[in-house]
Design goal:
Helix content is about 50%, strand content about 15%. It is of the alpha+beta class and about 180 residues long. Helix 2 packs across helix 6 and helix 7 packs across helix 8. The chain is globular, with a radius of gyration of 24 Å.
Length: about 180
């Protein structure tokens, strides 16, 4: 199954699909994007075409992202008709790769219909951009990496304590995970 999953993911992520994912990532979470997802949910396409999807739309608290919760899956239907349902999970995995390629989301999933779950959740959480620590953070880290050599030099250890204080402040503020 792992070989099939890798093969399918690589096949799906050819040049045109990578371009599409990057383009989609740039408009992720815009009003247009959310309106499109809501319209797709309202369409309930699998009610008219068994090889399509029915989904519900859920926004995450605080505007941190959203989820498409699929209750009917065209791929599951097709694979069942083909007698290859046991391979369906391999076709679900590229959701992670496509999200990562888009660059705007972290893809999260708890259930898939293919694995017997009550629904297939496709969650898109906004990526948290890392803020570089900058020059002061580098100095603080260098001071800490210097170890005990600067800690006790004739009673003068202010440089070590200064570096340690800066690093402590950065850790407390969790600067590396602040949103831009």
């Amino acid at each position: 199954m792992e070989r099939l999953t890798d093969f399918y993911a690589k096949g799906m992520m050819a040049g045109p699909m990578r371009w599409f994912c990057r383009k989609s990532g740039k408009r992720k979470f815009t009003e247009e994007d959310i309106a499109g997802i809501k319209a797709t949910a309202a369409l309930r396409a699998a009610d008219h075409n068994p090889c399509s999807w029915n989904m519900d739309f859920y926004e995450y608290p605080g505007g941190s992202g959203y989820e498409g919760r699929f209750t009917r899956c065209g791929i599951c239907t097709l694979m069942q008709e083909l007698g290859s349902y046991d391979l369906t999970l391999a076709l679900c995995h590229p959701d992670y790769t496509m999200s990562e390629t888009g660059g705007a989301t972290s893809f999260v999933r708890t259930y898939t219909l293919a694995s017997g779950g009550p629904y297939c959740d496709c969650g898109y959480k906004k990526c948290v951009k890392k803020v570089p620590l900058g020059f002061l953070g580098v100095l603080a880290a260098q001071d800490l990496n210097a170890g005990g050599a600067e800690q006790h030099t004739g009673g003068k250890h202010s440089k070590f304590l200064h570096g340690r204080s800066l690093l402590y402040i950065f850790q407390q503020l969790d600067v590396a995970n602040l949103r831009l």
